[in-house]
Every structure is written in C-alpha cells, then in structure tokens.
Write a structure and sequence with these properties.
By secondary structure, the chain is mostly helical. It has one domain (2-209). It has helices at 2-20, 27-37, 41-54, 61-107, 119-130, 137-145, 151-177, 181-211, 215-227. The protein is globular.
Length: 228
C-alpha cells in the first residue's frame, strides 16, 4: 500500500510540476501525454485516474474523455473504471488505516451504532453516491473508509456505480475524436440522465413517504391540536 501511495503522489506531483496546478490538466494536455507514452499510455491513464481520486483537487473528467478519445469506447471505459476503482480503494484504505483505528480507540462501539453499523445500508449508500455526479467521489471514498464497511463491499458498490459515468465520458471522448457531433450530443444527454434520474427517484420516494404517512400519527396530532 505504501508503494501505491507513493506512486500516486508522484503522479500528482508530476501533474503539479507540469504547470497545470490544482486546476488539473485539460483534455488536450492529457491526450498529448497519452500519445507520448506510447505503449504505456493505458498505464498512464490508470495512474492519472488514481491520482485524481487520491489527490482530490485534480479533476478526473478530462482524463476520462481523453482516454475515450485515445482508446475508444470499450477500452477507454475499462481504463477509466479501473483507475477510478483502484484510486477509490486506495483512498478507502488510507482513511481506514489512519482514521478508523484512531476513532475506534476514542469512541469504541459507538462509532458503528445505527445505520453506520449496517453493511447493506453503507453499501447501498456508496452505490447511490457513485451515480450522482455532484457527490464528491473522492471525499466519499475517504469518508466511507472511516466506517466499518468491508473492503470487498466497498469495491463492488463502487465498481457497479462508476461504470455508467465511465462509459458516458469515454464515449464522449471517442465521439469528439471522431468528430461525431451527434454521438457527442447523445453522450452529453446520457450524462444528464445520470444526474437527473437519481434526483427524480429521490423526489418520488420523498413524495411517496409524504402521501403514505401514518394515519394514527395524524389522528394523534389532530387530537393534540383540538385540546389546544
């Protein structure tokens, strides 16, 4: 794990020294790097995606789009998903090693009480968060490392959740490289669906709870209001 952390930090430092700063490299810059890397291009994409997760300020979208432009929809998706998965697992393990043990000594069993002690709830939370582009992928990986969620459950939920976005971004890159305006528009529309559908589902669930509230509770509330 130490070697993996040092490798990712080296990549992040290289990105910083390349002049891109915390804004991260543009799609064009990543494309040049990948082209110059030659046969090691796929490894570079994976390393950049890992660095983008572990070193939070580095954006991952330009890397994913450049990967799709360089390697096509399928291989680009595999490289992006693999890099994001390894980066997420590394962030999880860093938080688990440095944070969870210390918190456990301080709070004991209280740390895993309630929903934080449920493997299924935590796994579902990770999966759902991966489908929501506005939820920080990096911060979620670190935060979940502080819980008792097992690594294999975290890895499975993360991989299942990142596949759709990985494919959409890689497809977008492939269409841009092929000058396919129609396909690129379709990819952007797909990315919008990834954002909108989970929000609509959450709104629908919230509405459903409101309509199916406990009638006994409502009656009690009315009775209390009557006495006042």
């Amino acid at each position: 794990m130490v070697l993996a952390v040092l490798t990712v930090l080296a990549v992040a430092l290289w990105i910083w020294l390349s002049g891109t700063g915390f804004a991260g490299p543009s799609r064009e810059t990543v494309a040049v790097w990948v082209e110059r890397a030659g046969p090691f291009g796929p490894l570079l994409v994976i390393g950049l995606m890992m660095a983008a997760v572990v070193a939070s300020p580095v954006p991952s979208a330009p890397i994913a789009v450049a990967a799709g432009a360089a390697y096509g929809h399928i291989l680009g998706t595999v490289l992006v998903a693999l890099g994001a998965e390894l980066g997420a697992m590394l962030a999880f393990l860093i938080a688990r090693k440095l944070g969870h043990d210390a918190l456990s000594k301080r709070f004991g069993d209280k740390l895993d009480m309630g929903l934080l002690g449920s493997q299924n709830v935590l796994m579902l939370t990770v999966f759902a968060s991966r489908l929501l582009p506005f939820v920080s992928f990096d911060m979620m990986s670190y935060a979940v490392g502080l819980t008792r969620l097992r690594l294999w459950r975290f890895a499975l939920a993360t991989f299942a959740g990142i596949l759709p976005a990985s494919f959409v971004l890689a497809h977008l890159g492939g269409e841009i490289a092929g000058a396919g305006a129609g396909g690129a528009s379709l990819a952007v529309f797909g990315l919008g669906l990834l954002t909108g559908v989970p929000l609509l589902w959450l709104a629908w669930k919230r509405n459903g709870r409101g309509k199916h509230s406990d009638p006994g509770l409502e009656q009690d509330q009315r009775g209390e209001t009557g006495f006042r």
